[in-house]
Specification:
The chain is α+β, with helices and mostly antiparallel strands and 156 residues long. The protein is 28% helix and 38% strand. It has two domains: 1-29; 37-155, Beta Barrel (OB fold (Dihydrolipoamide Acetyltransferase, E2P)), CATH 2.40.50. Strands 1, 2, 3, 4, 5 and 6 form a six-stranded antiparallel beta sheet that branches. Helix 3 (37-43) crosses helix 4. The longest helix has 19 residues, at 10-28. The N and C termini lie far apart (61 Å).
């Protein structure tokens, strides 16, 4: 009976082919699974309310662009020793959303989740660098009171 349906129904064959193609193509460019706010708060070393003041984008190579954000820190929700201003530099990949951003974050008011990394220079001096929480697609959240309260509850 199944063979009969496939042989007799070109429309069904076309629908199955389209579904298979969509699954394969979508699977290759799919976003990572959503990470809850609670998990982001636990994983981050620094959670900040920021204003993105400046956004710059420049070509890096054929598949990526270099982004630079200037952030003005308005309040610290988690962590200590947060600077009043931050500069974040990272690559964006316009053709994928897997673990990267397709475009830089536009100017606006956000909550950002950062990790603190220690960088050792050639002269053996160490300094601190702040990087976006991975996957980067979940490092920024539009600021709103609901998300702000959810973060506060997870910090208690």
């Amino acid at each position: 009976m199944k063979k009969y349906l496939l042989k007799r129904s070109p429309l069904l064959q076309l629908a199955l082919l389209w579904a298979l193609q969509t699954i394969i193509a979508g699977g290759l460019k799919s976003a990572p699974p959503m990470i809850s706010i609670a998990d982001r708060v636990r994983a981050a070393d620094l959670v900040l309310v920021v204003q993105v003041e400046e956004v710059r984008l420049a070509e890096f190579n054929q598949i990526s662009k270099r982004a630079h954000l200037h952030l003005s820190v308005q309040s610290v929700l988690k962590g200590s020793d947060a600077p009043a201003e931050l500069n974040l530099a990272f690559l964006v990949f316009p053709e994928t959303v897997e673990n990267h951003l397709r475009e830089p974050i536009p100017k606006g008011h956000y909550i950002v989740f950062l990790k603190r990394k220690t960088v050792i220079k050639d002269d053996q001096q160490s300094s601190t660098a702040y990087v976006m929480l991975e996957p980067r697609t979940f490092a920024f959240v539009d600021y709103n009171e609901e998300v702000y309260q959810e973060i506060k509850e997870n910090l208690e």
